[in-house]
Amino acid sequence: MAAMWKLPIMFVVENNLWAIGMLHLRATSELEIWKKGSASAMPGVYVDGMDVLKWRRLAMLLEIPSKP
Fold it and tell me: Residue 3: CB partners within 8 Å, gap ≥ 6?
């Protein structure tokens, strides 16, 4: 829905290597979770969760002026 309505949303996904009750490796065909957004025409970016400066730069890139 976010892609369809063009909502200015940043989804943050943490990969703890587990799916629902089993290892992530056994539960998905795409091992890099950040690539899954392309199925809904949403760009994906991998950012190390410990790199605060990269997160800040990414958030600044995503700031979009609100539309009426």
Answer: 40, 41, 42
Q: Give me 11's structure tokens.
A: 């989804």
Among all chains, which residue has been given the structure tokens 């290892």? 23
Convert the pLDDT of each residue in 4-61 to its tens digit: 887 877 888 888 888 788 888 888 888 888 888 888 788 888 888 899 999 888 888 8
For 35-61, letters b (16+ CB in 10 Å) and e give eebeeeeeeeeeeeeeeeeeeeeeeee
Q: Is 1 helix (H, G, I), strand (E, B) or coil?
A: coil
